[in-house]
Design brief:
Rossmann fold; alpha/beta; about 15% strand; NADP-dependent 3-hydroxy acid dehydrogenase YdfG; about 270 residues; 7 strands; seven-stranded parallel β-sheet; 8 helices; about 45% helix
């Protein structure tokens, strides 16, 4: 029987109560990681923690405002003190934003919401964990992007710019932290079709574009977005979580400063 990929590693997941954060936390726990989940909704964090505990995993939760830099830094320092350092960090924080509005009708404030929200949270969390990672104990920072980083499509100005920014941030941060033995890898899934019913992020995000075509969100995803991918389907939560576990492990130890393309072939890098 092979050794769990993340055995002996400590991992913090920001947005740990969300669809991607929760799915990844469960896989990380299965692979032996000690989990620290942070997020804004305690009930969602508790639900993920119960699943992990039921499977024999080790998990702690904390209600943390990811936009409060001092709070995030205190939380990261507490994790490092308890676990002897931080081995893996994933930013799975979601920021609701506009998709579907063209430039003529898009306000500056709407344009800036995803750019400021996603990149601010990524900067704050990365800056908080980096001092507690690496050197003789390899560290990994995982980020999340979207196909909007490379698509030429209307109605996703703020979304696309923020996604491209996250990918650029990841590459540049990898260059800075390599000397400290810290890898930085961005994961770029497409829209995820099997998010749990309790998670309304995907439904709310694509509601406007689905309505414009007189479709339900599910129809828009399965009959629209999925058909633009080579595989004619969208990635699953399990696929994203399993990829994250591999990239966070020593088995992915030569991978840094790059984007793992989980778009099903919607983008061909």
């Amino acid at each position: 029987m092979s050794r769990p990929m993340l055995e002996g590693k400590s991992a913090v997941i920001y947005g740990g109560g969300g669809a991607i954060g929760g799915a990844t936390a469960r896989v990380f726990a299965r692979e032996g990681a000690r989990l620290f989940l942070a997020g804004r909704t305690q009930s969602k964090l508790d639900a993920v923690a119960r699943d992990i505990t039921a499977l024999g995993g080790t998990v702690e939760t904390a209600q943390v405002d990811v936009f409060d830099q001092r709070a995030v830094e205190r939380h990261a320092a507490a994790i490092a003190a308890a676990a002897g350092g931080i081995d893996v960090a994933l930013n799975a924080v979601s920021v609701m934003h506009d998709q579907g509005t063209l430039l003529a009708d898009l306000s500056l404030e709407e344009f800036m919401v995803p750019i400021d929200g996603f990149l601010r949270s990524l900067f704050i969390t990365s800056k908080a964990v980096a001092p507690h990672m690496g050197h003789e104990r390899p560290g990994v920072i995982l980020t999340l992007s979207e196909p909007g980083a490379k698509l030429a499509a209307g109605g996703i100005l703020g979304h696309g710019v923020s996604a491209a920014g996250k990918e650029a941030f990841s590459r540049l941060l990898a260059a800075e932290l390599a000397q400290s033995n810290v890898r930085v890898v961005c994961i770029r899934p497409h829209a995820i079709v099997d998010a749990p019913a309790s998670d309304s992020y995907t439904k709310d995000l694509f509601k406007q574009m689905a309505s414009a075509g007189d479709q339900s969100v599910q129809e828009f995803l399965e009959d629209g977005l999925a058909q633009g991918a080579l595989l004619k389907r969208l990635p699953t939560l399990a696929e994203v979580a399993e990829t994250a576990a591999f990239l966070a492990s020593d088995r992915g130890g030569a991978i840094t400063a790059t984007v793992a393309n989980l778009s099903g072939g919607a983008l061909v890098d």
